[in-house]
């Protein structure tokens, strides 16, 4: 028999304006259960979580919390006002005074000082304080709304391990796919005012969601056929008794209403970047570039070439200097020494994480039009502001809504709408994924993958980096930055699984060497000025070996393209398929080894 739920919501309804935001929704959380709450921006996820936390009351429905059960809620924008120090704020969330030591432990684990003034904290620091407050209390139920927003990757990875170790029941709202896949055991999908539940982890959710939507389409098709039959009877059927006719007319109206509600359009963000003429092949070139703040080096002896079409992700702990690096590479700031040169014909569009370009008092329409008229300049054409708003899932009645009243996800979409309207061949995106829903992230990823220009991307979203980045530039301590081929997971593989360390980067210490029989990663410093004889011999022979494997793969693929091969020689088809798989694995191994040796050789030559 399943244990009784610690938290239960039933038949929750809430109406904002004329349309119900929540219409009979509900979910339950049992001891130790980890539930992720997903849905489109604006569907009411945060509102439902606030109802679960007891912060707001629904129009109707039941909220039940087991007597004696402790609950803690992490909002999207925590309020730290009224506390003199970070420690006071964290202690304020404890119910047992004897557990005050946990407040100091949690602050230390999250890289915060107990004496920090809450009024001067950055967004990421405030988020870490709020996390320390809810985790130190060790509640029975933990409600987390976008817990990874503004956190760096070392902190996200620490948080992931900490939450996995807890026996606390959790409900999590997050756009971080990797976090949801790791933590979740159930999924509650809030969609068009109702909830559906999947008692499996998030990795199964997207397949299940498509199955649900396909079933809705089939049901809608059946309704269409039934409506067509009733309409045919209305036009050509034999007139029966008046009461029967009235009943069938009412039934037809009910069928039309059911069809309208069956698959209400969810809408899709239309993300299309306006592309300017091509830039030169070299977009930006840094040569021995250095930048410091006081005695602390932010960038030291950076040599980098960003080519047209590259999509480079920039990662590192908070305070490592990611934003400063972007400003250097885009010519906004000048290096203390060395040079940074922008290529010719660069047309740059920037999306900053603080969203400072948005005026909270200005209306949504005026933000898009620049305050002039009702038309938006999108590339070379003018579009009506209402039509352009709809591309980003804004309703016409929101045109006069002040920006300050928009949700975090809506402000994120507004920033994208402003940025993508301007022609560019270099997109500079500083934390673009904050507050965006999973569907919008998918579309943003597809847009960046098809974008003809160059992308510089700072993000803490590991899955998004894996999907988008062609190379990753990582802070490795003391102002050093190292470029790796591929996304975040590729970077970890080249570092032999060594993740970024917040304390190491913050202290400015060099990256520790990796003890491994394989060739060391490019970030490992060595006393030798050249590769060993064995490594140099392997590096010399690998290009020829790679060419041989590629020729073999082409030959095998050509043979397998014969449509009659399987029918004529099934065993031969199987042998050649296995040989192709083996050759592709050999090619991957050889390329990774060559990359590792080549980056190490370049690092040793630059020492």
Describe the 3D structure.
The protein has 607 residues and is an alpha/beta fold. It has three domains: 7-206, P-loop containing nucleotide triphosphate hydrolases (Rossmann fold, 3-Layer(aba) Sandwich), CATH 3.40.50.300; 282-507, P-loop containing nucleotide triphosphate hydrolases (Rossmann fold, 3-Layer(aba) Sandwich), CATH 3.40.50.300; 533-606, Helix Hairpins. It has 19 helices and 20 strands. It has helices at residues 45-53, 86-91, 100-109, 123-136, 153-165, 177-183, 205-236, 242-262, 322-329, 364-369, 385-391, 408-420, 438-450, 462-468, 488-494, 502-507, 533-560, 565-568, 570-606, and strands spanning 7-16, 19-29, 34-38, 60-65, 71-74, 141-145, 169-173, 186-191, 194-198, 282-293, 296-307, 311-315, 337-342, 348-351, 375-378, 381-384, 426-430, 454-458, 471-477, 480-485. The strands form five sheets. It has a six-stranded mixed sheet with strand order 5-6-7-3-8-9, with helices on both faces. β10 (282-293) and β11 (296-307) form a beta hairpin. α3 packs antiparallel against α4 and α7 (205-236) runs antiparallel to α8. The protein is globular and about 80 Å long. The termini are far apart. The model is unreliable at 240-244 and 502-528 (pLDDT under 50).
């Amino acid at each position: 028999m399943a244990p009784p739920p610690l938290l239960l919501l039933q038949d929750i309804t809430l109406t904002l304006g004329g349309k119900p935001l929540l219409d009979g929704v509900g979910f339950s959380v049992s001891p130790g259960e980890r539930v992720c709450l997903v849905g489109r921006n604006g569907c009411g996820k945060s509102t439902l979580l606030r109802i679960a936390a007891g912060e707001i009351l629904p129009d109707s429905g039941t909220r039940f919390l087991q007597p004696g059960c402790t609950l803690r809620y992490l909002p999207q924008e925590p309020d730290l006002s009224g506390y003199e120090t970070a420690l006071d704020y964290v202690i304020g969330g404890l119910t047992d005074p004897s557990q005050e030591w946990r407040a100091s432990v949690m602050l230390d684990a999250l890289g915060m000082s107990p004496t920090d003034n809450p009024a001067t904290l950055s967004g990421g620091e405030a988020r870490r304080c709020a996390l320390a407050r809810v985790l130190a209390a060790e509640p029975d139920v933990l409600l987390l709304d976008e817990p990874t927003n503004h956190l760096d990757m070392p902190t996200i990875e620490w948080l992931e391990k900490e939450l996995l170790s807890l026996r606390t029941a959790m409900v999590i709202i997050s756009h971080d796919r990797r976090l949801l896949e790791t933590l979740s055991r159930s999924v509650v999908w809030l969609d068009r005012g109702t909830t559906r539940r999947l008692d499996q982890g998030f990795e199964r959710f997207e397949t299940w969601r498509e199955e649900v939507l396909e079933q809705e389409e089939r049901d809608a098709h059946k309704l269409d056929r039934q409506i067509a039959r009733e309409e045919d009877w209305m036009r050509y059927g034999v007139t029966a008794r008046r009461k029967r006719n009235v009943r069938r007319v009412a039934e037809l109206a009910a069928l039309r209403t059911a069809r309208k509600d069956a698959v209400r359009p969810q809408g899709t963000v239309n993300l299309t970047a306006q592309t300017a003429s091509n830039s030169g092949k070299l977009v930006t070139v840094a040569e021995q570039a250095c930048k410091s703040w006081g005695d602390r080096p932010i960038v030291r002896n950076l040599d980098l070439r960003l080519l047209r079409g590259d999509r480079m992700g920039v990662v590192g702990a908070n305070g490592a200097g990611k934003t400063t690096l972007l400003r250097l590479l885009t010519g906004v700031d000048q290096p203390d020494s060395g040079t940074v040169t922008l290529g010719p014909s660069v047309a740059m569009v920037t999306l900053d994480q603080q969203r400072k370009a948005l005026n909270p008092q200005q209306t949504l329409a005026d933000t898009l039009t620049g305050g002039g008229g009702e038309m938006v300049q999108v590339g070379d054409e003018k579009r009506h502001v209402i039509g352009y708003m709809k591309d980003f899932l804004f309703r016409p009645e929101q045109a006069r809504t002040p920006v300050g009243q928009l949700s975090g996800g809506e402000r994120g979409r507004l920033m994208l709408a402003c940025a993508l309207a301007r022609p560019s061949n270099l997109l500079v995106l500083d934390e673009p994924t904050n507050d965006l829903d999973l569907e919008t992230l998918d579309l943003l990823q597809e847009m960046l993958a098809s974008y003809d220009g160059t992308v510089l991307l700072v993000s803490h979203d590991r899955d998004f980096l894996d999907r988008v980045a062609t190379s990753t530039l990582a802070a490795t301590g003391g102002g050093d930055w190292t470029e790796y081929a591929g996304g975040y997971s590729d970077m970890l593989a080249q570092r032999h699984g060594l993740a970024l360390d917040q304390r190491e980067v913050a202290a400015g210490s060099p990256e520790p060497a990796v003890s491994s029989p394989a060739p060391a990663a490019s970030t490992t410093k060595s006393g030798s000025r050249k590769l060993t004889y064995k490594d140099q011999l392997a590096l010399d022979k690998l290009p020829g070996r790679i060419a041989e494997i590629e020729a073999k793969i082409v030959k095998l693929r050509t043979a397998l393209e014969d449509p009659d091969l399987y029918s004529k020689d099934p065993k031969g088809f199987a042998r050649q398929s296995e040989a192709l798989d083996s050759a592709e694995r050999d090619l991957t191994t050889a390329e990774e080894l060559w990359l590792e040796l080549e980056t190490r050789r370049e690092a040793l030559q630059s020492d």
